[in-house]
């Protein structure tokens, strides 16, 4: 493999430095504009070349010390070496660039709303039992190798602190070489752990889990033997107390490995954005409503919401919260696969606003019907600027105006960014 000395000229949207070589552009992870670096060129079957960073001969003006001992090994973060002001600009530019690619106005993008370290309340770890011991952590970048973590500046302290005991527990549960995934969520009543394992729990495993939950005051431990990636197939093994999260001061008993916003800070920002956007709306349709993190606060504000989602366990959790808190006159709940059976334009007749928070792929099937509707306001939450921009373009072509976009940094030091967008019928 060829070794080269290159000067980094730009920072790509995935956090890789970009340099020009005689053979074209080279993407170099963990490098920054202005860096003079030595790299080993890795062969690429197609597309631009990639370079493995060997050394930084000269540092660019925006380089700082990374804050994590696992950085450059763990694939969770890509730009810890970037100074914060430049990091904020880079992250906002990811959203601006996504809009520009779809011919949309980048000037509607607000400044990045930033979070802090140790705020991430959801994590999904990989685990494997090797001859040398059990490893638990995140995957190395562009690899299936697990980087066993001892600390993480992004995760909530309660999640970080359980990692070592959890690694020991998995050492007793896993036989040699099998792998597992572990989802950990910090709820308001304690940690909720869901184990995705290749075999069902035997009696000894159940006893170990009960002892572990009691020793570490875990709210609930569930088990899914890879029958499905959906938590509706997860079997609660231990439940010391209900796994509860409050949305708009309404407690919700969430299902195992529930979809919630990655940070409480981000949820609060997005909720306030939504409440402001729909303030004049009486009748609201909410798509991909989940457990009600936005539904319930809107209901408390006096809005009437028809909530839809394809995950029946999440819908059941929301419905239970609605009934137990006297909100049945304001909230209706329906299970519906919005990809296979989206609401058509006529089903939005008389609706004042639509709120949606679709999966990472966006909601192209639903958006084409929404673009044909007369709904005055659309409030769109997205964890993927590319799919948001694609969907927003369809709405703009259907007569909507992109009013504003607010980037929210729930994925610190990574190229991922949450956003909130408002579109209004022109």
Number of helices: 8
Report mean pLDDT, rounded to a whole number. Answer: 95
Gross CATH architecture of the largest domain? 3-Layer(aba) Sandwich
Low-confidence segments = none
* Straight-line distance between termini: 56 Å
Question: Can you list the strand order of the major beta sheet?
Answer: 8-7-6-9-10-11-12
User: What's the CATH first level of the largest domain?
Assistant: Alpha Beta
Molecular shape:
globular
- CATH topology description of the largest domain: Rossmann fold
What does this structure look like?
This protein has 426 residues and is α/β, with parallel strands linked by helices. It folds into three domains: 3-62, Nucleic acid-binding proteins (OB fold (Dihydrolipoamide Acetyltransferase, E2P), Beta Barrel); 88-116 and 260-425, 3-Layer(aba) Sandwich (Rossmann fold); 122-253, Beta Barrel (OB fold (Dihydrolipoamide Acetyltransferase, E2P)), CATH 2.40.50.1070. Helices cover 24% and strands 31% of the residues. It has eight helices and 21 strands. The strands form four sheets. A seven-stranded mixed sheet has the order 8-7-6-9-10-11-12, with helices on one face. The chain has a seven-stranded mixed sheet with strand order 17-16-15-18-19-21-20, with helices on both faces. Strands 1-2-3-5-4 form a five-stranded mixed barrel. Strand 4 and strand 5 (49-58) form a beta hairpin. The longest helix has 18 residues, at 84-101. The relative contact order is 0.11. The model has no long low-confidence stretch (mean pLDDT 95).
């Amino acid at each position: 493999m060829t070794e080269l000395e290159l000067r980094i000229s730009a920072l790509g949207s995935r956090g890789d430095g970009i340099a020009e070589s005689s053979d074209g552009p080279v993407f170099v992870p963990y490098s920054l504009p202005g860096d003079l670096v030595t790299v080993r060129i890795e062969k690429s079957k197609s597309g631009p070349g990639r370079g493995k960073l060997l050394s930084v001969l000269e540092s660019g003006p925006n380089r700082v010390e990374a804050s994590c001992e696992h950085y450059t090994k763990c694939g969770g973060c890509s730009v810890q070496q970037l100074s914060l002001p430049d990091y904020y600009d880079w992250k906002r530019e990811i959203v601006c660039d996504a809009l520009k690619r779809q011919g949309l106005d980048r000037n509607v993008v607000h400044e990045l709303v930033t979070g802090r370290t140790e705020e991430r309340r959801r994590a999904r770890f990989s685990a494997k039992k090797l001859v040398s011991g059990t490893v638990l952590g995140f995957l190395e970048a562009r690899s299936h190798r697990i980087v066993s973590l001892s600390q993480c500046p992004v995760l909530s302290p309660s999640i970080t602190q359980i990692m070592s005991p959890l690694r020991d527990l998995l050492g007793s549960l896993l036989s040699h070489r099998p792998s597992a995934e572990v989802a950990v969520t910090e709820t308001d009543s304690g940690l909720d752990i869901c184990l995705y394992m290749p075999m069902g729990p035997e009696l000894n495993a159940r006893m170990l889990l009960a002892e572990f939950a009691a020793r570490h005051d875990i709210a609930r431990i569930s088990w899914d033997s890879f029958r499905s990636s959906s938590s509706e197939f997860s079997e609660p093994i231990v439940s010391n107390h209900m796994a509860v999260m409050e949305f708009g001061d309404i407690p919700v008993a969430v299902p195992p490995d529930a979809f919630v916003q990655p940070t409480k800070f981000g949820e609060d920002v997005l909720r306030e954005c939504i409440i402001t956007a729909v303030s004049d709306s009486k009748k609201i349709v909410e798509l991909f409503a989940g457990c009600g993190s936005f539904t319930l606060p809107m209901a408390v504000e006096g809005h009437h919401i028809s909530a839809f989602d394809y995950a029946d366990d999440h819908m059941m959790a929301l419905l239970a919260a609605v009934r137990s808190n006297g909100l049945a006159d304001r909230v209706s709940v329906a299970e519906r696969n919005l990809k296979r059976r989206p609401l058509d334009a006529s089903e939005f007749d008389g609706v004042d606003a639509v709120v949606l928070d679709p999966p990472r792929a966006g909601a192209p099937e639903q958006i084409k019907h929404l673009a044909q509707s007369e709904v005055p306001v659309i409030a769109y939450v997205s964890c993927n600027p590319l799919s948001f921009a694609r969907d927003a373009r369809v709405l703009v072509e259907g007569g909507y105006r992109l009013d504003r976009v607010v980037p929210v940094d729930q994925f610190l030091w990574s190229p991922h960014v949450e956003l909130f967008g408002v579109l209004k019928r022109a």
